[in-house]
Amino acid sequence: MRTLLTNLERLAHTHKGLLTRVDSWLEAGRTCQQIVDRLSDKGIRIPARTLASYRQRRWAARRQRIQAQRALAEQISSAAGEEGIDAMAAALLWELLQEHKLNPTQLIAVRRVFQSRQKLDLLLKAAQPGEDADPEKVVKRMREIFGITPGP
Q1: Backbone angles phi, psi at 103, to 5 degrees
Q2: Over the stretch 15-64, which tens digit does the pLDDT of each residue have?
Q3: Where does the pLDDT of residue 133 fall: very low under 50, low under 70, confident under 90, or very high at 90 and above?
Q4: What are 9-18's contacts with CB under 8 Å, separation 24+?
Q5: I need a surface site. Which of 4, 32, 63, 120 has the fewest CB within 10 A?
Q6: Residue 97 half-sphere exposure, CB side, CA atoms within 13 Å?
Q7: What is the pTM of this model?
Q8: What is the Cα–Cα distance from 84 to 108, expressed in whole angstroms?
């Protein structure tokens, strides 16, 4: 399927960073006329209707898609819990590896991130001991988690 570019997207080929600036201004709540004025100060002349068309066709559609993805992620997270999310992430990584969209080096990097997260979770649990926990045991456990050898 072929996507037609908006006039603003065509103009972005000659003005580096134009879409990024426009998107950030739209995110900040600026009106189309305010953005047109700012761009004209920089020597870029764009009609307000061109900007309004981009806002409706591209920016608003992308924003709605992202909001829907966030809502879905929150629903999945609340329904599946942390263990379920980890299992889904592992399944997705395996699928990407099978489809050759992820190479083994990238998979190892992702694994390291997961391991770091697990270590952080353990650290947080150790840092919030129960009332009967011995502080020396907590320090010892933290050293074990991070592989720190006790000093002389």
Answers
A1: -90, 165
A2: 888 989 999 999 999 999 999 999 999 898 989 999 999 999 899 998 99
A3: low
A4: 9/54, 9/58, 11/44, 11/46, 15/44, 18/44
A5: 4
A6: 14
A7: 0.50
A8: 21
